[in-house]
User: What shape does this take?
Amino acid sequence: MQQLILDSNTWLLVLTGAGVSAESGVPTFRGMDGLWENHPVEDVASPQGFVKDPLLVWRFYSQRRAAAASVQPNPGHAALAAWERHLGDRFLLATQNVDGLHRRAGSERVVEMHGTLFKTRCSKCQRAPFEDTTVYPAGTVPGCRECGGILRPHIVWFGEYLDPADMKKIESFAYRGSTSGGRFVFLAAGTSGVVYPAAGIVDRVREAGGETWLVNLDPAENSGRFEYNVTGKSGEVLPKLAKLM
Assistant: This one.
């Protein structure tokens, strides 16, 4: 296996997708037909679905919270946390996962691009998102203590934009890494290479002269745009991939 050298001149931007969490046993909640309990995913993961049936949406996300809380970070999560401890501020982890496993593994410099299961915000007022691990009983829709509005999961749903502040953090890190005079590396793991803007990060890094790595069990849609491709489960590959210098 080719080794990724992480030395004092390296800046590393990591992107993780569902494949990293799947190895911890996080369920997808969708069957082969793409449905959850015979509901299209848009029914429980879109603003329109929430307006139509908040009870259904909260039942779905309470199930997801319970499932995510019941599993543990895997060796891939642990490896990324170790890389961060080694590189410090020259490391940034952007994840499309909402299960909180990276933070539980010890990662701190994390951008949760699609939000997190374990935060809630108000659908009506400007109350800031807050930590919330409650698994609400079926038939429950929590209300906002500040305005009386309906609370919603802090998740980026279909039809919604990513938080501009999150994208700015990623872009700022990429700029600092590519202009540092050192070596700028981008590594994606467990991603499909389909969902944008995450799938386009590899192109931006290549344009900036960075080094690009992909760790995936199956070929990603954008595999051909990476300089280095390593096939395998991230939980098995990542602990062996990097040489910390």
